[in-house]
Amino acid sequence: MTRETIGVAIEGISKRYSHRVKGEVWAAREVRLDVAPGEFVTLLGPSGCGKTTTLRMVAGFEHPDEGRIRFGEQDVTGVPANRRGIGFVFQNYALFPHLSVAENVAYGLGVRGVPAAEIASRVAEVLGLVGLAGYEHQFSSQLSGGEQQRVALARAIVIRPRVLLFDEPLSNLDAKLRVQMRTEIRELQRRLAITTLYVTHDQEEAMAVSDRIAVMNQGSVVQEGSAQDLYHRPVNEFVATFVGRVNLLPGRITGLSEGGGSVAVLGTTVRVRAIPASVAVGDAVRLVLRPEAIGIAPAGGGPVAASVVSHAFLGEKIEYDLRCGDVPLHAVRYNAGPGIVMPDGATVALSLAEDALAVLPGSGS
Ligand SMILES: Nc1ncnc2c1ncn2[C@@H]1O[C@H](COP(=O)(O)OP(=O)(O)OP(=O)(O)O)[C@@H](O)[C@H]1O
Ligand SMILES: [Mg+2]
């Protein structure tokens, strides 16, 4: 039995709630997003930005006030959840505690009328896929959190869904298990090539698992792209600060040319490639300077003088708090061997990795 691989088109869906404390809330506002067949796309954003609301509308658990949702050619906006062919993995697993692992996984096949012999072989197959071979008769109340999440994953994929949906599936697990499970989810998704929409507020998790990330804020998608797109070319301050650490430095455009321009910043001039089309020479801008794009050399070894306020040696890397005039800077250097740490109070010379710089319009104030 094969499953067609289809894409998902989210076409301007909105959802309003009347909230007791906040009044009328646009939980989702004209959300537009395409997920290509077999693609893994993540909705990333802070608490309350509308990730769960959007995902639940794709699942069919909520109905949008406006907009349409398409699975392949089919408009599923009015189709009930159990007819959409989705697998949903919840944060709290939502297993039946009084049923065994096999019964939990078999449940969705039973209600679909799949014959008993086929159920048994499909349950065994997916339990193997999620690393729980032999767990059939264990009760779900006797499993660790990580094992319960594997059962929830097995239950979602056993029905051979057209679309797999995850809502913060790893947030109840400890840090080490989160990293292990996200790798397993990603490998399984690749192997089965199931079109996937995943929700998390954890930017590192989003970067680790996704083909593409849609950053949400206040009910809307503000930017979508690969992890590298978002990190190196954020469209606004929200994305720049939400995806990774950043220094946003006041600067001014001093020249524009094809494929970039020059920016006066920190008492020097740097070349920047990622310059938005809306800025003109003379405009105030903010330079997007990532911590690892700051090179640190002994005094005199670069164009910008600064001092080390404090540092932390973390083994693989060294984190620095620096000051350049009255501008604070956060920098990270990877540990290239003994003897490279700049002590607190040292005067140093900074260089900026020009390929890694970007510019945001405006002064931000
Ligand atoms: N059933 C509801 N009734 C009223 N307001 C709701 C309801 N569900 C969600 N909201 C509101 O809609 C907004 C978006 O909620 P949603 O659960 O989609 O956010 P989220 O991004 O999933 O957040 P989190 O990361 O905390 O899970 C919030 O302001 C929330 O208070
Ligand atoms: Mg949520």
Description:
- By secondary structure, the chain is α+β, with helices and mostly antiparallel strands.
- The chain is built from eight helices and 20 strands.
- Strands 6-7-8-3-9-10 form a six-stranded mixed beta sheet, sandwiched between helices. A five-stranded antiparallel beta sheet has the order 13-12-11-14-20, with no helix packed on it. The chain has a five-stranded antiparallel beta sheet with strand order 15-19-16-17-18, with no helix packed on it.
- Helix 2 (101-111) packs across helix 3, helix 2 runs parallel beside helix 4 (145-158) and helix 3 packs across helix 4 (145-158).
- The N and C termini lie far apart (59 Å).
- The chain binds adenosine-5'-triphosphate (ATP) and magnesium ion.
- Magnesium ion binds at residues 51-52.
- The site of adenosine-5'-triphosphate has 13 residues, from strand 1, strand 2 and helix 1.
Provide the fold topology.
Blueprint: E1 8-19, E2 23-35, E3 40-44, H1 51-59, E4 66-71, E5 74-75, E6 86-89, H2 101-111, H3 116-129, H4 145-158, E7 163-167, H5 175-192, E8 195-200, H6 203-209, E9 212-217, E10 220-225, H7 227-232, H8 237-242, E11 247-257, E12 260-265, E13 268-272, E14 284-289, E15 294-298, E16 304-313, E17 317-324, E18 327-334, E19 347-352, E20 358-361
Parallel strand pairs: 3-8, 3-9, 6-7, 7-8
Antiparallel strand pairs: 1-2, 1-4, 4-5, 9-10, 11-12, 11-14, 12-13, 14-20, 15-19, 16-17, 16-19, 17-18
The chain binds adenosine-5'-triphosphate and magnesium ion.
Task: Supply the key terms.
single chain; 365 residues; alpha+beta; Rossmann fold; OB fold (Dihydrolipoamide Acetyltransferase, E2P); six-stranded mixed beta sheet; five-stranded antiparallel beta sheet; 8 helices; globular; binds adenosine-5'-triphosphate; binds magnesium ion
